[in-house]
Amino acid sequence: MSIGPMKVKIRFVPQNTTQEVNVERGSTVTDLLRILHRRPDSVIVLKNKTPVPIDDIVPDDQELSILQVASGG
User: Fold this and answer.
1) Are the CB atoms for 66 and 40 separated by under 8 Å?
2) Given CB 3.0 to 4.6 Å as the disulfide criterion, which of 9, 25, 40, 69 pairs with 63?
3) C-beta of residue 23 within 8 angstroms of C-beta of residue 56
4) Angle formed at CA 27 by CA 44 and CA 59, multiple of 5 degrees
5) Where residue 60 sits, what CATH number does that domain have?
6) pTM of this structure
7) How many CB atoms lie within 10 A of CB 21?
8) Measured between alpha carbons, how far is 18 from 57 in angstroms, rounded to an integer?
9) In a domain, 73, yes or no
């Protein structure tokens, strides 16, 4: 197992933009969202079109998608 930061590629939906972020190995999805200044209750994080729980460890060498959710009345 490697030690130190890793790069994670993030794709934002529906903006269709990408960003690479450095996170420490072993960081959770919540840690990643904190780095990106996103609230966990305002987005859904996806890996291969499957939702990822916010307490999961960020996978190495993966592309994650962040889907902005909207609610209203």
Assistant:
1) no
2) 9
3) no
4) 65
5) 3.10.20.90
6) 0.85
7) 16
8) 20
9) no
